[in-house]
Amino acid sequence: MNPxxxxxxxxxxxxxxxxxxxxxxxxxxxxxxxxGAAAPxxxxxxxxxxxxxxxxxxxxxxxxxxxxxxxxxxxxAGITVFFCVLQLLIGPELLxxxxxxxxxxxxxxxxxxxxxxxxxxxxxxxxxxxxxxxxAYFSPSFLDPSAALIENPDIYTTPTEQVIIATSFAVGAAAxxxxxxxxxxxxxxxxxxxxxxxxxxxxxxxxxxxxxxLAAADERNHIAREMHDIVAHSLxxxxxxxxxxxxxxxxxxxxAMNTLGTVSETGRKALGEMRRLLGVLRGPEATxxxxxxxxxxxxxxxxxIRLTGLDVDFAVEGSAxxxxxxxxxxxxxxxxxxxxxxxxxxxxxxxxxxxRLRWTGRGLEIEVGDDGRGAAASQSTQGSQQGLVGLRERIxxxxxxxxxxxxxxxxxxxxxxxxxxxx
Length: 423
Description:
alpha+beta; Heat Shock Protein 90; 2 domains
């Protein structure tokens, strides 16, 4: 790494130590220059050790607060103002350490509250004017022109020239202070904007993480619904056929052969759907696109269910006026599939089921009922609860509703609606 960048990085990571080092350098340089400050106004003969110590003391007091300028900006500025007032009252006209005033004004504009920033610029401007007045009206040339001419004829200036010099000093000092405050306020505005951008970036990261979590949860629910619809239905048919074939095979081997054929065909279909679902999970390049089951496949579904021994009465009433929303036919198919699978699983022997599809002015109504004992059983197992929850979620995606519960006189019923696609 570049040594200058490494040094800059160290200063940025240790701001307090940096400010202390800078304050020490300022004291070492400017306090040394302040030792040679001019004698007090009106008494040029007084330039001994006490006056040197006073100048050194004021300079150190003005410069040392820079060490805490980021930690306590208002306190640092207050200490500097105190020693500037002390200089104005009893100190030399000018001290090299006065350079800290525009520096402190800039620091207030960057790091202090707004009120402190405005108070700092106001105090600095007032100090510039008062110091100019001190130079103009309390100088030897103005107080006693004849004595000043006799004492220092080489550097004597008339009172008018002294006023011009003082006015120029005050205007120049005010301009420097205003420039320092303006640059500091600009840096403050930039810092606030950067902080807002960082906050916004963090907020966007949090929102993006939340959106990813919601998307992942939604995808998990989608996968869970698909897995349940594929596995639960197919395995229920396989189990029922296997049980029936085992008992029937003892008397009629041909029945067992037919049953095994049904089991094999159902297993292959389930395996194909599982491969399709896993292809979607792996990525688009591994996906084998196949048509999703719809209303036209309900008769094949009913025939497969009948192979389990369940008597199913299937009928369609009316005709569609408009298309169902995209995926609506799949949702209707899954509703019938889930309802009949629960009937096979919990309905018991000698159960009959009815499937009615009714096309109305609002959409498709699906009603699946049975006369078995599945009302209590379907609510007692966690699997059926998951299936009904997934069914409500699937239908709800298209603005439909699902109602399920025991029937009067025994049995269980599921009523679902899938509205037409909005135009």
